[in-house]
Amino acid sequence: MRNLIIIFMIIFSGCAMKKYDFTSPIGDVNESYYEQNLSWWEGYDNALLNKTMKTILENNLDLKNSNLNIEKFIAYLGLSRADLLPTFGASYNASANKNIDENSNSDINFKSSLNVSYEVDLFGKFMDKYKKSVFLLNASKLDLNALDLSIKSDSVSTFFNLMYLQNAKDKIYKMKQNYEKLKEIIVAKFNYGRADKLEVEQINQALLQSDEKILNINTQIYTIQEKLKNLMYMQNLPNLKNYNIFDVKLLGISKEIPIEILSNRPDIKSAELNLKATFYNYKYTFKSLYPNITLGASLSSNEQKFDDSFKFSFLGGNIQITLPFLDYARVKNNIKVSEVEYEMAKNDFLKKLNSAINEFYRAFLDYENYKFKFENTSEILNHSINITKYYQIRYDNGKNELYDLINAKNTELNYELNLLYDKYILLQNENLIYKIVGGKI
Prior knowledge:
Elements lengths: L1 H14 L31 H13 L1 H22 L4 E11 L9 E14 L4 H67 L5 H36 L33 H21 L5 E12 L10 E9 L5 H69 L5 H35 L5
Helix pairs in contact: 2-4, 3-4, 4-5, 4-6, 4-8, 6-7, 7-8
C-alpha cells in the first residue's frame, strides 16, 4: 500500500510541474471573397501560348513532386490517426525441449496469443499530434497551389520574353541593314571628298555596335530558350517567328483590388497553417511530460498439442504507467526546441505577410509607371514616324539626301525597340500582379 501511495504522489507531482507560457496562434486572416481566374493567360487569345502552358502544367516535375509531397503528408496523417486507436497483435510459438542426460521424450509446447493495447489519451496529446498532421497536410496542398501559381506566372512571362527578344532581334537586323546602306553613301562621299574620315569611323562604329547588340540578344534568347525547355521538360520549343508582341492585348489590372485579397494567397495561407501546426506540435511535446497510461488485454493458450493451441483458454489484462517527466532534462530540451520552432514559424508568417503587402503596393505602382512609360514612348514613336514620312517626302522631291532618310528610319526603329521592351515589361508586370493577388480578378 505504501508503494502505491508513493507512485500516485509521483504521478500527481509530475502533472503539477510548471507549464511554459505560450500564446495561441493568431486568428484566421479575414478572407476576402473574389472570383479569381487561375487560367488568365487564355485571355490573351494566343493558341500557341495555350498549348505551351498545357505542356508545362502536364510535364513539370516540380508540380509532380509537390503532389507526391501531399501523399507523404496523407500518410503522416494516417499514422497520427492510428495513435488514437487500439493496437492489435497476434503471435504463435512452437518449441521442443529434451533432456539429453535422460532417456526421455521431447517436451513439445505450443503457445498462441491475441492481444490488444491502448494508450489512453488522457491529456489530448495524440489529438494534438493529429491536429498538427491535419494542418501540415492542408499546408502542403496550399504549397502546391502556390507553386502552381508561380510556375504559371513565370511561364507566361518567359513566353512573352522570348517573343520580345525575337522581335527586337528583327528590329536590330533592320537597323544594321540601314547602317550598311549609310556606309555605302558615306564611303562614296568620302571618295569624292564630300565626307571626312570621322564620318567613316562613326558609321563603322555603329555597324560594330549593331553586331554586338545582335550577339547580346542571341545570348539572351539562348538563356530564355533554356529556361522554357526546363519549364516544359522537352526540347521542342514554340515557334514564335511570326508573332509580334505588339499584337498581344493587355488584360488589364483592376484598380478596385483591396489589400485584403492577399488573404487568398496560397503561400500566406500555408504559412498560417504551418504556424498552427508548430503550435500543436509544441502542445504535443509539452504533454510528453505527463504520465502515460496503457491498457492491455490478451487471449492466449499454452498447450502440448497443436490442435489445442487455438483454444485461447487464458484471458489476461494489464495496465502500464510510465513517467516521462523523470527524464526531465531530456524532455525539457525537447520542449524548448518545439517552442523555438513555434516562434520561428510565427516570424516566418509575419515576414511573408509583410513581404506580400510591400510586394502588392510596389507592383501596382510599377504597373502605373510602366503604363505611363509605354504611352509616352508610343507618342514619341508616333512623332518619329511622322518625321520619317517628312524625310521620305523631301527625299522623293530631291530636297533631302538618302542619308537623312535612313537616319530617320533608324531613329524610328530605335523607338520601336524601346516600345517593344516597354510592352514586354507591362506584360511581365501584369502577370506578376496576377501571381501576387492569387489570379486574375
